[in-house]
Amino acid sequence: MGSRLLLLFFLLLFVHASSAQPGFLSLDCGGAVNFTDDLGLSWTSDFNFSYGAVASISVANETRKQYTTVRHFPADSRKYCYRLDVTSRTRYLIRATFLYGNFDSNNVYPKFDISVGPTHWSTIVISDANTIESTELIFLASSSSISVCLSNATTGQPFISTLELRQFNGSVYYTEFENQFYLSLSARINFGADNEASIRYPDDPYDRIWESDSVKKANYLVDVAAGTKKVSTDMPIDVNIDERPPERVMQTAVVGTNGSLTYRLNLDGFPGFGWAVTYFAEIEDLDPEESRKFRLVLPGYPDMSKAVVNIEENAQGKYRLYEPGYTNLSLPFVLSFRFGKTSDSSRGPLVNAMEIHKYLEKNDGTLDGYVISRVILSHSTEDWAQEGGDPCLPVPWSWVQCNSEARPRIVKLSLSSKNLSGNVPSGLTMLTGLVELWLDGNSLTGPIPDFTGCTDLEIIHLENNQLTGELPSSLLNLPNLRELYVQNNLLSGTIPSGLSRKVALNYSGNINLHEGARRGRHIDIIIGSSVGAAVLLITTIVSCLFMHKGKKRHPDQEQLRDSLPVQRLVSSLRNAPGEAAHCFTTFEIEGATKKFEKKIGSGGFGVVYYGKMKDGREIAVKVLTSNSYQGKREFSNEVTLLSRIHHRNLVQFLGFCQEVGKSMLVYEFMHNGTLKEHLYGPLKRGKSINWIKRLEIAEDAAKGIEYLHTGCVPAIIHRDLKSSNILVDKNMRAKVADFGLSKLAVDGASHVSSIVRGTVGYLDPEYYISQQLTDKSDVYSFGVILLELMSGQEAISNESFGVNCRNIVQWAKLHIESGNIQGIIDPSLCGEYDIQSMWKIAEKALTCVQPHGHMRPSISEVLKEIQDAILIEREVTAVREDISDEMSRNSVHSSLNLGSLDLGGAENYLALDESLAQPTAR
Length: 922
Ligand SMILES: *[C@@H]1O[C@H](CO)[C@@H](O)[C@H](O)[C@H]1NC(C)=O
Ligand SMILES: *[C@@H]1O[C@H](CO)[C@@H](O)[C@H](O)[C@H]1NC(C)=O
Ligand SMILES: *[C@@H]1O[C@H](CO)[C@@H](O)[C@H](O)[C@H]1NC(C)=O
Ligand SMILES: *[C@@H]1O[C@H](CO)[C@@H](O)[C@H](O)[C@H]1NC(C)=O
Ligand SMILES: *[C@@H]1O[C@H](CO)[C@@H](O)[C@H](O)[C@H]1NC(C)=O
Ligand SMILES: *[C@@H]1O[C@H](CO)[C@@H](O)[C@H](O)[C@H]1NC(C)=O
Ligand SMILES: *[C@@H]1O[C@H](CO)[C@@H](O)[C@H](O)[C@H]1NC(C)=O
Fold this sequence. Notes:
This protein has about 900 residues and is α+β, with helices and mostly antiparallel strands. The strands form nine sheets. Strands 2, 3, 4, 8, 11, 14, 15, 16, 21, 24 and 27 form an eleven-stranded mixed sheet that branches. One 2-acetamido-2-deoxy-beta-D-glucopyranose binds near residues 18 and 33.
C-alpha cells in the first residue's frame, strides 16, 4: 500500500469520537476510508496520522475490514503516539488490538511496548501471525486528551491494527484508587456461552468484550470440575442499570451439578493487586423446598470462604443480578478457584460471568511536562513539536534528554537548526534541571532571557541567531556554566566582568559586544581586608554549592561536572570582586534613600527604607536595630557569608554598609510587598490573589527554604518564617527575606544562643519548650503560612477563630479533621479552586504543624506536594477554561468534587495544647 503518501500531511491526528455511537472512537489503523462494520460500529481511518507507514495484510478467516491493514513504525529508539480527545473526569475503556499477518513479509514476530502517556501499559508479544493480540484498560480521564504510544521494539517493527475508546456513563468501574491507578483487563468471562463467539456491542452498550468460556486457550479456564453443566434461559434478566453485564451474558451460566465449579486460569499482568467481580443471576427453576447455597474457595484466602452466596436471596429475586466482588485483592498469576455448595444446599453452585482487572499504577511523568507543553504550543505545527505523549517517558522525545529520576527532569534540549523564530521561549528558563541548551542556527530574535533558575546549566549554545541586547549579568549566577556560545548574533554592550574567566565564551561576530573594564577600586580594598575571612569561609561556601548540585547529579553528568574544579572556584573568590559582599559607602546609601526618607517596612531586625541608586537600581535598605556588632571584621565576615547565599527564591543581598553604631544591609527592592499584605493587608482590597497564584507563591517560598536547609552545609535555619517575610516581586514571584539574620543577630549579640526567636503564631511549640532548633521549626512556620494561604486569615487573631481560639493552627485543625475544609477556605477565592489541590495543601499543612518535629515532613516533601497541587490546579483550570462556555462554574465544581473528600489518616494528629503556641518571644 502507498505508504509514502502519508508524509504529505505532517499533521498530528487529533481524533474525536464519532457521532454514530456517542462516546465511541474506533480507529482503523492503516485504513484508508471510514466505514461502518456489521456490528454497526463506525470506524475512522487514521489516514492523516503523521508517522509510520501502512501495510495491507490478509489472514485466513479474518474478514473484518479493520483487520486488513496495519500501521507500522520504524524500530528505532523513538515513541510514536496517537493523541485521542477525551472528556476530563470521565471513565473510559481503551482497547488496542494487533494482528501481525506478516505485514512486513519477514515472519519476525514483533515485540514492543505500548504506553498511555508516561505509563507503561503493556508489552505486546506476537506469537502467531494470525492471532489478534489485544490489551485493554479502564481509566478515569484526568485531562482533555490521552496519548497512546508505541515504542521499544525489541524484535520486529511496532505496529497497531485498531484503537478503540469507549466512554462509560455513571459510576461503574469507580474505584477509590482511580486517580493513581488504571484497571488493566485480565479476564472478562461469559460462562455457559453456547458458542465460541464473544458478546460485545450492541448487546453491551459499552462494547466490552465478554469472552466465551468455550474458547480453548492454553492455561485458561482449565481443570473444570466433572459435572459442570451449561444452563441458559430466554427470560429477561433484571440487571438494574445498563452499565452492568449485558442481558445475553447473564442469560447463560454454568452449574456444578456435582457440588463444585472449579477453574484455573493464568491472569495476565498478575501477581499484583486487582479488582474482581462475579456476576450471578438465578436462571434455573428451583422447587420451593430446594436451595442453592455456595461458597467461594480460594486457596490461601480462608476469609473469603466465610460468605455464603444465595443468589436468589442476595439479588432479592429470580432473574436478577447479584454482583459481589472485591475492590482490592492480591491475586497470583495462576489463579485456581472453586465454588462449592454448602452441606445444606440441594443444588450446586452457579456462575454467569466474571471480571478481573489488575491495578496498574499511573506514572506521573516528567516534572517539566507542563512547562514544555507551553513552549511547544507556539510551534504546534512543527514536526518536532508533535511527537506526543510525555516528553521523557517511557522514552524521551527525539530532541530531549531526561535524567533517570522517578519523575524525570529535562536535562538537554537540542533544537539546533529547527527554524525557530521569535524570542527565546521564556518557558525554557523554567526547566530547572536543564544542563545543556542548544538553540543555535535558528532565527531567534530579542534578548537572552534570565536563566538564573536553571542552576545546573553547563552549556548554552545560542550562536548563529539574531539575538539582540546585552549579555545578561545573570549568566554569572550559573555556578556550573562552562560553555557559552553566542557568536554571530546582534548582541551589544559589555561582557559582564568575570564571565570570560569563568566560562569558555565565544562572542565573535557580535560587532557591538565588547570586553568590559575592571570594576572600581574600593571593592578590591574590602576584599583585600577580608581575604583572611574569605579563605576561612571557602570550605563552607564550596561545600554549599557542591552539596546542592550533588543532590541532583545524574550519572551521565558526573564527568562534566567534575571538570569544574574547586580550584577555579577558589581563585574566582579571590579575584572576582563581584562575588564578595559589596560595601556601600554611607554617602551612597544616604543619596539613594534621600536620607532615609521613605520607610517601607519594619521588622524584628530593623526598619527598612526604599532607595534608588544612581544607576536606577531600586534597593531596600535595612537599618539594623542591634548595635552589638562589636568587631567590624566579625560583621563583614557574616555578611560575606550572607552574600554567598544565592537563590532565585531568596531576596538578593546586594551588600552592606557600616558606620559607628549603625549597620545596614542592602537588598534588592521587591515591588509587590509582602505576602501578608496580599492576603489580608491593604493590597487585598484591590484584587485578592487567586489560588493558583497562592500555590505558586508557596512553591517559590518552599524552594527558597529548601535551599537554605539542603543547599548549604551547615544548613541555615531561617527561624522567623512568616507571611511578612515572604516578598513578592514585579512578576508576582515570591522570595524569602531575612534569612541568615537570626544567626547573625543571635551570634553577634551574645553568646547565649538559646534565646527563643520567632514570631507568635508561627513559632514551633517544640522549639519553644526544648530550645532545640532544627529545620523542622521552619517547617512548622511554613505550615502556618500554608494555612494562611488557604484561609486568608492571620496566624493569630482575637476575633476570627471563635471563642477560646486565638490561633489559626487550632482552628484549621478542627475544621480539616472533621472534613469541613470549606469552613476555612478564603471566601475571596470565590470558589475558584479545585478541591483536590486544596485538600492536598490542607493535609500537608496539618502534617507541618504536628507538635513534634520528627512527625513533620521535610520542606522538600512539602514542596513536592505543592507542585502536585499546582499540576492539578493547572489541569483543572485548563479544563475549566475549555468548557466554561458550555457549563456554569458551579456545575463544573460539583462534578470535580466527587470522590475527593478523603482525609487519609487525619485522626492520627495529636492535639496541640494552645498554651504552647502562644509564647511571647519578643
Ligand atoms: C472520517 O471520519 C473522520 C471523523 O469522523 C473525519 O474527520 C474524516 O474527514 C473522515 N474521512 C473521510 C475520508 O471521510
Ligand atoms: C486528511 O486531511 C485532509 C486535510 O488535512 C482532508 O482533506 C482529508 O479528508 C483527510 N483524510 C482523511 C481520510 O481523514
Ligand atoms: C477457516 O474456516 C474454514 C471454514 O469455515 C475452516 O475449515 C478452516 O479450518 C478455518 N481456518 C482457520 C485457519 O481457522
Ligand atoms: C524495552 O524492552 C525490553 C524487553 O522487553 C525491556 O527489558 C526494557 O526495559 C524496555 N525498555 C524500556 C525503556 O522500556
Ligand atoms: C450515556 O449517557 C448519555 C447521556 O446521558 C446517553 O446519551 C447515552 O446514550 C448513554 N450511553 C449509554 C451506553 O447508556
Ligand atoms: C460426584 O462426586 C462424588 C463424590 O464427591 C464422586 O464420587 C462422583 O464420581 C462425582 N460424579 C461425577 C459425575 O463426577
Ligand atoms: C490495595 O491493598 C494494598 C495492601 O492492602 C495496598 O498496599 C494498595 O495500595 C491497595 N491499592 C492498590 C491499588 O493496590
